[in-house]
Specification:
Blueprint lengths: L14 H25 L4 H30 L5 H40 L42 H24 L3 H32 L8 H32 L9 H26 L1
Length: 295
Amino acid sequence: MAENQTYYVPEQSKWPIVATVGLGVTLYGLASIMVNSNQGNSTTGSWVMFFIGALIMAYMLFGWFGSVIREGRAGLYSDQMDRTFRWGMSWFIFSEVMFFAAFFGALFYVRVFAVPWLGGEGDRGSSAMLWEGFNASWPLIRNPNPEAYPGPHEAIGPWGLPLMNTILLVTSSFTITIAHHALKAGHRARTKLWLGATIVLAVVFLFVQGYEYIHAYHDLDLTLQSGIYGTTFFMLTGFHGAHVLLGSIMLTITLVRLFKGHFTADNHFGFEAAAWYWHFVDVVWLGLFVSVYII
């Protein structure tokens, strides 16, 4: 592999335009699903638009990252480019931290301020006159207006499926760390083994979470329409599940690249980037487990 110690300027690319179109179509479809669902309208067209946007995004990701991989394998990148990739991935993860911080902040505001105010606490105590006998407690099972907004039968306990998923993700952090150390030591077979184990744990996590959602909807009546508890629960755990799915795809592609002979003990930032992202996903889940399920 050749080495290029000058700053590499890539050729003109269509991928930023494709990414813009795909992201716009995907978000428009997602917003349409939410609006039409709340209004009781058909969401078929919205789902079609969402999946079209998702396919465009998948096409963009495979094409754009494929170009980056080919350029890297051709030795076109210098040490400066390696630092650029690392800073780029660091800022991307920071943006994801801020994304989840917004949802955690919303949960904190609801639990510490909004719900107690509705129950008559503090300077906003006059609001208690609107719903006589409303008991402000968290998780909010009985909403202030249960006739219009019925709440769930009960909350999801932390020591069943959520604990199982916590064990799965914490274990996956150890397995991917072992894989990383094996790669740095030049043990490619061991790297493939432990990275494969990480992917299996991730897939099991997604199946367990899917089963938990089915249980919540059908057995507990815990849905997005069951008040602020249902909304915050599904927004936080749902977006985290989407990130687990994305991380699983990243790890799977990394494993495929390992089988193709990519990465060396000294040059494997693609592996490191996926590992960084996976550790971020694990840390977010620990915060979710404590704030959503336990306290």
